[in-house]
Design a protein that fits this description.
This protein is an alpha/beta fold and 469 residues long. It has 3 domains: 171 residues, Rossmann fold (3-Layer(aba) Sandwich); 247 residues, N-(1-d-carboxylethyl)-l-norvaline Dehydrogenase, domain 2 (Orthogonal Bundle); 37 residues, 6-Phosphogluconate Dehydrogenase, domain 3 (Single alpha-helices involved in coiled-coils or other helix-helix interfaces, Up-down Bundle). The strands form 2 sheets. The protein has an 8-stranded mixed sheet with strand order 3-2-1-4-5-6-7-10, sandwiched between helices. Strand 5, helix 5 and strand 6 form a beta-alpha-beta unit. Helix 8 packs across helix 12 and helix 12 packs across helix 13. It is globular. Bound molecules: NADPH dihydro-nicotinamide-adenine-dinucleotide phosphate. NADPH dihydro-nicotinamide-adenine-dinucleotide phosphate (NDP) binds next to helix 1, helix 4, strand 6 and helix 6. The site of NADPH dihydro-nicotinamide-adenine-dinucleotide phosphate has 23 residues, from helix 1, helix 4, strand 6 and helix 6. It is an enzyme of class 1 (oxidoreductase). One of its GO terms (molecular function) is phosphogluconate dehydrogenase (decarboxylating) activity. It catalyses: 6-phospho-D-gluconate + NADP(+) = D-ribulose 5-phosphate + CO2 + NADPH. Its EC number is 1.1.1.44. Pathway: Carbohydrate degradation; pentose phosphate pathway; D-ribulose 5-phosphate from D-glucose 6-phosphate (oxidative stage): step 3/3.
């Protein structure tokens, strides 16, 4: 019997996804560049599931039902192109390749065009949820063509995470839409992670709280409006002790954050499209700064920080909680606005309401807040700042955020993402920004011209003329 689907790339994600698909009743053929990994996978993890290992790419392709459907879960970048090139000689027009890795959307754009011209079908599919999600139900963000999607829709809907609003999978949009949306998902993830980290920093270095107590606080927050996967894992992380030293695990982990690029790509795309995503940008920058551990250690000794312990109070904990809510909201606001703009610019035809729906389960940024966002999202209100309920949610919390920023500044704690959420909101809600002065400066040194508030047209003056003194 031929397999319903094939999967290439048996690292963490591929293994779990293959098992998930097989457990939903589909026969899966698998292949990995390094044969040993395939052998180990079959020996250690396959327990009665219909998973057929292959050690030759041609045999692998021939084991599949037609039209063939092949999911790639290989390292993003060149490995995807290499794998596609290896497959092509054995495929027939109408066969479907699905790239489930974190590919850059411009690579997906190129591959989509190339494969479509050759008569093949292609989906660029964002997969979120890590290894647990891949096995038990990820959030799936496939983009490409509707025709390609319809070939695998039944399988994808079955393996995706489920919520009361349906499976966390939908046809996201044209061509590279799926990978664009996944990229922004990761950008939002960066901003929320950094916001939580800044709150933790204040708890640790201003409130002087023991980690167990911080864990209890995050746990309590997670039972309310902040309920989310990232807050949940934070309270679990803070509870964990190092077996060797007995210390809290977080205290033995080096403060140098790594990244694989999806946050940076989000910022780059946002800058190119002219959409403000300061929380995402600064979350990326802060990971970069964290890398300079030696410099930071040296400089910290030259600039002794002023830090006075603040007594924990119910009021201040509420301020922290409301600030995190505010920052989380702004991360989504910026991300959704970016997706909306990309959808227009690249003719993706993305349904923002559906994107939020498939982020409700399975993925890393799943959060209770998404239900609120879904009530108000639209192409006209993609940044979500316009509805009555949102206005009052934000107004109620702005005092708390100001207080948290004040305490951070007084104690010389860096809070780039919390403050960027504040500044993003304050800039967007300011009728008259000081950009008039910038226009004057540009005109002064570069004759770049300016518009006037009192009449139509484009103006330039000779700024040195008539100078006083
Ligand atoms: P990796 O990104 O570590 O990729 C390893 C896999 O890629 C192996 O199967 C490896 O084969 C294969 N590979 C590497 N180079 C080549 C090549 N030149 N030709 C053919 N195959 C190659 O694995 P992950 O499981 O972590 O991730 C897979 C994809 O899913 C990535 O794009 C990742 O960004 C994305 N992703 C990962 C998540 C995670 O939590 N890890 C979450 C969501 C998405 P070999 O065994 O022969 O080396």
């Amino acid at each position: 019997v031929k397999s319903s689907i094939g999967l290439i790339g048996l690292a963490v994600m591929g293994q779990n996804l293959a098992l998930n698909i097989a457990r939903k009743g589909y026969k899966v053929s698998v292949f990995n560049r390094t044969a040993q990994k395939t052998e180990e996978f079959v020996k250690n993890r396959v327990k009665g599931e219909e998973i057929e290992p292959h050690y030759d790419i041609k045999d692998f392709v021939e084991s599949l039902e037609r039209p063939r459907k092949i999911i790639l879960m290989v390292k993003a970048g060149k490995p995807v192109d290499d794998t596609i090139s290896q497959l092509l000689p054995y495929l027939e027009p109408g066969d479907l390749i699905i790239d489930g890795g974190n590919s850059h959307y411009l690579d997906t754009e190129r591959r989509f065009k190339d494969l479509t011209e050759k008569g093949f079908l292609f989906l660029g599919m964002g997969v979120s949820g890590g290894e647990y999600g891949a096995l038990h139900g990820p959030s799936l963000m496939p983009g490409g063509s509707k025709k390609a999607y319809s070939l695998v829709e039944d399988i994808l809907l079955k393996i995706a995470a489920k919520t009361e609003d349906g499976p966390c999978c939908t046809y996201v949009g044209e061509r590279s839409a799926g990978h664009f949306v996944k990229m922004v998902h990761n950008g939002i993830e960066y901003a929320i992670m950094q916001s939580i980290a800044e709150i933790y920093h204040i708890m640790r270095d201003v409130l002087d709280l023991p980690t167990d107590e911080m864990s209890d606080i995050f746990k309590e927050w997670n039972s309310g409006e902040l309920n989310s996967f990232l807050v949940e894992i934070t309270y679990k992380i803070l509870k964990r002790k190092d077996e060797e030293t007995g210390k809290p695990m977080v205290d033995v982990i080096l403060d140098r954050a790594e990244q694989k690029g999806t946050g940076k790509w989000t910022s780059q795309a946002a800058l190119d499209l002219g959409i403000p995503t300061p929380s995402i940008n600064l979350a990326v920058v802060e990971r970069i700064i964290s890398h300079f551990k030696e410099e930071r250690t040296k400089l910290s000794k030259l600039y002794n920080k002023r830090r006075s312990a603040l007594q924990k109070s119910e009021e201040f904990l509420k301020d922290l909680k409301d600030s995190l809510f505010f920052a989380m909201f702004m991360a989504f606001s910026q991300g959704m606005w970016l997706i909306s703009e990309a959808s227009k610019e690249f003719s993706y035809n993305v349904d923002l309401f559906e994107v939020l729906r498939i982020w409700k389960g399975g993925c890393i940024i799943r959060a209770k807040l998404i239900d609120t966002l879904r009530r108000y999202i639209s192409d006209e209100n993609a940044h979500l700042l316009e509805s009555e309920e949102v206005i009052s949610l934000l107004k109620e919390r702005i005092g708390s955020l100001k207080n948290v920023l004040k305490v951070s500044i007084e104690n010389e704690i860096p809070v780039p993402v919390l403050s960027s959420a504040y500044n993003y909101f304050m800039s967007l809600t300011e009728e008259r920004l000081p950009a008039n002065l910038i226009q004057a400066q540009r005109d002064f040194f570069g004759a770049h011209t300016f518009e006037r508030v009192d009449k139509e047209g484009v103006f330039h003056i000779n700024w040195e003329e008539g100078e006083i003194g």
